[in-house]
Every structure is written in C-alpha cells, then in structure tokens.
Please model this.
Amino acid sequence: MNSARNEDAQANLARILGIVFVALVVTILAVGLLRSLVPNWVRSRTSPIRGIEMTLEQIDNAKLVMSLERHLSADTTLTREQLQSYLVQDFWRRASRSGAEYRINPIGIPAEAVLKKRLVKPLSGSLPPRTIIRFSTNLNDYEVVQPGVPTRK
Model:
C-alpha cells in the first residue's frame, strides 16, 4: 500500500517538475523574443556602449535557452549558425554595425565584444580599439578590459 503511494507521489513530482521546466523554457524564450523585437528607433537613441551591451545580452540569452533546450554541457562551444534560430533574422548583420566583433564563447562564459574602432562614451571619455567588453558574472554590469592595461581583481 505504501509503495503504491510512493510511486504515485513520485509520478506527481515528476509531472510537476516537467511542467515547471517547460514553463521556465517558455518564459526564457518569451523574454528573449521580446528583447530582440525592440524597435530600431529605440536602439538608435541609445549610446553605442548600450547597443553593445544589448547585443551581448541577446547572445547570452540565446546561449542559455539553447543550452536548456538541448541539455548542453557548460563547456560546449556554439557557432553563429547554431544560435541564429534563437535570434532575430538580421541579428549578426545588425551587430556588425556596432563597431565591435562579437565572441560567443562556450556556454557558461559570457560573450565578449572586441572594439574595432574607438568608441566614445558619453560623459566619460572613450575606449580604444581592441578593448574587450563583457558582462561580469552577476550580469548586472559589464567589465571593460583595455589593451595594455592590467585588469583588477
């Protein structure tokens, strides 16, 4: 009698966990889709650094969703072609206009942008070419690694 109850409880728990997982994936997909559909006129009013931040966020969101859907390990390296189905149609063409080259990096390592030209930051100077911009591990802020300048821990 108890074993039947335990089996029913385990089956219910498995069903609930499955529903929670599907809801999580759908929510992440919805947020990623909404972020990628931000109108161009809103992006045109943002600073160049904010445009790069938004592009990095979209790449990292696409990596997260793909890794959850396909059960990929943390060190899996993805290509632009693999991520394309998780991004808007012209994503990589639009991203190339930002003046940065984007490195996808393996899952678990934030994407990076390497500046191809000098980037002027409003009210705070400029960043030279070859500067690397990436999100910090808490994803609330980004870090900037300038060429020839040692990084601080």
About this structure: The radius of gyration is 20 Å. DSSP finds five helices and six strands in the chain. Residues 2-145 form one domain. Residues 2-36 form the longest helix (35 residues).
